[in-house]
Each structure stands twice: as structure tokens, then as C-alpha cells.
Amino acid sequence: MRVLIVDDEAAFARPLAERLSLRGVETATAADAPEALASLERQDCDLIFLDVGLPGMDGVALLKVLREKYPRTDVVMLSGAADMGKAVQAMRRGALNWLSKPVRLDDVLAECRKADERARAREEAARLAEAARWRSLGRVAEGVAHEVNNPLNIIVQAAGLVRDCLDAPEAAALPEVDEAREAVALIRTQSLRVREITRKLLMVGHGLDPRTGPLDVAAAIDAVLELLHARVEQSGVVCRIALPDGPARPLGSLPELRQILLHLVENALDAMPQGGTLHIRGSVRREAAQDRGWYDLWVEDNGPGIAAEVLPHIFEPFFSTRTLQSRPQTPDQTSGQGQSLGRYAGLGLAVARTLAQARNGALTAVNRPEGGASFCLSLPLADA
Known about the structure:
CATH class of the largest domain: Alpha Beta
Order of helices and strands: EHEHEHEHEHHEHHEEHEEHEE
Shape: elongated
Largest sheet: 5 strands, parallel
CATH topology of the largest domain: Heat Shock Protein 90
Oligomer: single chain
Structural class: alpha/beta
């Protein structure tokens, strides 16, 4: 967890921050309201220890701002004997507790533990709500997919038969035969696109794989790249893979990992239609404070990146936009600058994130400073 101590007494704030850091709590300090708000703009935190008697904007006034801008962040007030009236006022405005100075380290650690438990409870509630929403969506999606697939297969087959007829030598004498061929090709292309959508709808309808265990990440990557081999070759994309040495492996389901990677790699290929470099790299990290480890797997492209206004929505089912454009490219990028971000519409990324969260993991996306998008899949270590 991350804690912010807001107190203008450096002789109090810095030693407390150091003692918390020694106990595995990531801690930052701020001397006044502007510094505290700037720190929160750079990085969120789970708990704020806020001194009542700050210079300029005092703690009670800052608390009001914090409740408006960061309602999910817990705040505990710090007060001396002369400030008890303000501390009570702060409690009425949403502070969870107050500690009287000089504070005891045990009391501070107790507040950290309670804040961590509240954050975990909120995450679990959100996860359960998301799982319930996906179960409902999955039942509808599976029904729709089955209903669409039957007539769709007939359309694809019929389009193929018409195409074969138009390709026959005797069809050359037909009027507007070239336009007819183009129309049939368009029907077939769009039908195959609908088939891909129904495939993803069926993925939504499937439940979690009951089989879990340590995952062979390299084998999952190989399987996905083999499946997409023809597309990778056709687009001229170069794949670079770097995985950590050692026995550490993530915990989960191999079919689900392959499914997540399939969505992420397909998305990366969509971003580089004229070629580029696909980076897949992994690393292992451990959180001493929470005594658990994580396996992080990045899938990165050097395409146009993700527009800032699109980035918060790319994991939403069926999110799409007609007007938002991708970020400007660097001069060495060859894919279409300002292209439509339709590649983020649909279910693929939403399914991938839901699968990750169901395994107590996470899937996040950012733009790379050098250009392109970076997706990070984090799964708990099997030995954690």
C-alpha cells in the first residue's frame, strides 16, 4: 500500500515516513496542501495522514478538497491538543479517525492495516459485481452467438459458391462481372468479421477453467504465435521475446492465458498493419509488505498508440468511437497516422481483463514514451 503524510513539521514527518518504509509501507511526504495535491496527481495513495494545522490551506479545508477529488482514499487526521476542535470538525467532513500528537507507531501501523483491509474489501466487492455483470452478459452473448452462427455459415458458404461461379472462364462475358466479384468479396469479408465477433461472444459465455496451476508462459506464447503465424508473416511484424530466467511461474489456467495473449497479440498486430516490432517480455516482482509475488507480462507494439481520451475506456465491452483519432506517430512509424480506433471496439480486451481479474490478477494499458501501446498482464506467482 502507499501512504502520504501531510505535515509541515519535517522533524515529525520524515522520521515517521522512514519507520513506515522500513516496515514495507511505501510512503511519501508533503509539507502543505499544494505539495500534497501535486503528489496525488503523480500517484494515488491508499491512506493519508493529514495534519490539521497546515500553513495556508489548513487540514480541514484540504480534507474537503480530498473528499471531492479522491473519495476512495482514506484520511486520518493528526492533531495536537490545541487542534482537537478542528479534528472533530474534520471527522464530520469525512475523516475516518484522528491521532493525537505525538503519535505512537503502533497506532499508525494499525491505521495502515485497516486502510489496507478496506481497500481489499472494495476491490473484492468490485470484482464480485463485475463477475456478476459478466455472467449475465455471458448468458446473453452465448445465445446471440449461437443464433447468428447458423445463418452466418450459410452466407459464407453461399458467397464462396458465387465467387467460384464468377471466377469461371464463361463468367468473363457477364456484364459488370468485376463489380460483382468485388461485392461478393465484400460480403465474404464482412461475414468473416461477424464470425470473429461471434467467436468472442462465445468466449464471454464460457465459465472459468477449473484447472489451475503453475503456467508455462513460453509455451503459451509459442502457441499463440504459431496460431497467428500467417498474419505475422503477412504484416511483416518482427517478434522479440524476453522472459525471466529461473523457476518462477504465474498461477492460473493455461487455456485462459493463451486466450488473453491471443487478444493482446491480435490487438498489437492491428496497430501495425504495415509492419513493426512486437515485444513480449516478462519479469518477476515481490511485494514485501503483502508477502506476495507477481509475474508481469508485457505485450507492446510500436504502432500509433492510444488516444488519451480512449485509454480509460478500452477495456469496456463494445466501446467504440467514430471521431477519436490515434496519437501522432514518430517519424519512423509507418502505420496510418490518425487512423480510426475501431480496433479497440468489441469484446477482446474486455474478455482478457475479466479473465485476468478472475485469477486475482490485473490487465492495464499505457502508452509507451517512444510510441506505441503497452499492455501489462499481472498474475500472482504460483509459489506466493
